[in-house]
Specification:
With 339 residues, this protein is of the alpha+beta class. The protein has helices at residues 2-18, 25-32, 36-49, 69-75, 79-94, 98-114, 117-133, 148-160, 229-234, 254-260, 287-294, 307-334, and strands at residues 54-58, 61-65, 162-168, 176-187, 191-197, 204-207, 211-220, 245-251, 269-272, 278-284, 301-305.
Length: 339
């Protein structure tokens, strides 16, 4: 029965798209063999999903049609699509990705300018109202620095499969000139160029805000055929790469239900335990960043493996405790009220 109703809605859409003069509600009901109320619900459903449907006023009666045939029917953007595009622009801009936000904003202008004036007038109030009413939260963290010219140069090198050279202000030798083969771009809390220096086949992350005097060289340079930037980033929790290890985490109490909805790693395996706790397993590197994150779960997570991750967690906690314990003791001695 549900399939039959869907088929009727699609059939009505075809008829509205094929009619130059449009159809009245009575004609819709008569042609589809349904009652007027059913025809109204079908018509309204089509109008919600495909807002380019036009209403033609003939005295006190109305006729409905979908202009530009089936192509227009399937290609015109919906309110939800335009709202999501607007939200993506705001999220990128608030997160510091201003260059990428400007690129999407240009696409937004092109999409809206391609709409017919009547459709644009009808859909704009809904898009603006929902855009004001919905907000994507912004995580606390560093603001990425974007240089449009640098991004353009890197993309040029990636498309042309050319080597690049720049002066790098980070690493073990700040200010040194590096020549490498670019593998890709990685956008996170900070933005990174992924690439391997000449003479090495091991890619590294290079922060874009630490790159100066960038140039694209007239020399061939392409990543290995089997390289996948998705696989590369999945080998680490965060951006720091080290030896990949099997991680096993045990969540208890209220944290078990929360961890079930959490994505720690693209390839994680989640197993519910008989006592209501949760076991999360995945393989990754970046133990330091993982330890930093696991601290936010407090005492409701237990690191089962690897041993190295437990050692990193304990070392970080001891260093933090020592730092704040000494500071607190100094403040107590300095405060006469405490003596």
């Amino acid at each position: 029965m549900r399939h039959e109703k869907a088929a009727l809605v699609l059939e009505l859409a075809r008829r509205l798209a094929a009619s130059a003069e449009g159809l009245s509600t009575e004609e819709m009901a008569d042609q589809l063999g349904v009652c007027r109320r059913t025809a109204e619900r079908m018509r309204d459903a089509i109008g919600q999903v495909f807002p380019q449907m036009e209403i033609l006023q003939e005295g006190v009666s109305k006729r409905f049609r979908i202009p530009r045939g089936l192509d227009g029917f399937f290609q015109s953007p919906t309110t939800d699509e335009l709202v999501e595009l607007s939200r993506a622009i705001d999220t990128l801009r608030d997160g510091g990705h201003r260059n990428r936000a400007a690129t999407l904003e240009g696409l937004d202008h092109k999409v809206k300018s391609a709409l017919k004036a009547e459709h644009r007038r009808r859909i704009s109030p809904d898009v603006e109202a929902l855009s004001r009413a919905e907000l994507t939260g912004i995580r606390a963290g560093p603001q990425p620095v974007e240089d449009p010219r640098l991004l353009t140069g890197i993309r040029q090198a990636l498309m042309g499969m050319c080597q690049v050279r720049f002066r790098y202000l980070g690493g073990s030798n700040p200010g040194s000139v590096r020549t490498l083969v670019p593998y890709g771009l990685f956008f996170e809390r900070m933005n990174y160029l992924v690439g391997a220096e000449i003479g090495s086949d091991q890619p590294r992350n290079w922060r874009l805000d630490r790159i100066e005097d960038f140039e694209v060289l007239d020399a061939p340079g392409a990543p290995p055929e089997a390289f996948s930037i998705a696989d590369y980033t999945a080998r680490s929790f965060g951006v720091f790469h080290d030896r990949v290890e099997k991680v096993r985490l045990h969540f208890t109490g209220d944290a078990a239900a929360e961890a079930r909805r959490w994505r720690f790693h693209p390839n994680q395996v989640v197993t519910a335990q008989d006592d209501g706790s949760l076991l999360v397993e995945f393989e990754t590197g970046g133990m330091l960043e993982l330890a930093w994150h696991l601290f936010t779960w407090r005492t409701e997570v237990e690191i089962l493996s690897p041993v190295g991750l437990r050692e990193v967690m304990v070392a970080e906690l001891q260093a933090t405790l020592a730092r704040h314990s000494s500071t607190f003791a100094t403040e107590v001695v300095a405060d006469p009220a405490q003596t």
